[in-house]
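Students often ask what a 'structure token' actually looks like in practice. Rather than answer in the abstract, let us consider MOSC domain-containing protein, a protein of 180 residues. Its sequence is given first.
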Amino acid sequence: MDGTVVAVCRSAGHTFGKPARESIRLLAGLGVEGDAHLGVTVKHRSRVAQDPTQPNLRQVHLIHEELFAELAAAGHTVLPGELGENLTTRGVDLLGLPTGTLLHLGAEAVVEITGLRNPCRQIDAFQDGLLKQVVGRDADGGIVRKAGVMGIVRAGGEVRPGDTVRAELPEGEHRPLERV
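Now compare that with the structural description of the same chain:
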């Protein structure tokens, strides 16, 4: 299950979108160097307000490029980084991976998938009606989140567009992704 890095993004401020870069550096146990969500403890503003000592399970945000085509079919134009992701990938079913999957990015970096992004109403401020496209319901009425996955950096390294993405599934029973 190999794929490709399409774009890498970061923002030093707590902005909704993140500008694309030529490369980003992942730092083990911390996240994306120079990004507002870098750190051992949670950096997301609403989570900091609840408990600033929580571990940061959202060091890196990844979205599959295939989502952008789905959104375009629904009338929304979204480019890499505009939904706040650090990495845009192609060819890997991010949403179908189990918790604990290791994503090998380029030559050195490794991100462990911790769960699903739980999108908020800010998405509708970006584009009206977009939230309904990235959060829906399945046939049984369960919530389906499509706005990417979150992870922690297990091994640091430089990541660039065009780098390979290789998914290494965890051993044992696979746990489905839940929101983090």
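One point worth highlighting: The radius of gyration is 15 Å. Ask yourself how you might have guessed this from the sequence alone, and why that guess would often be unreliable.
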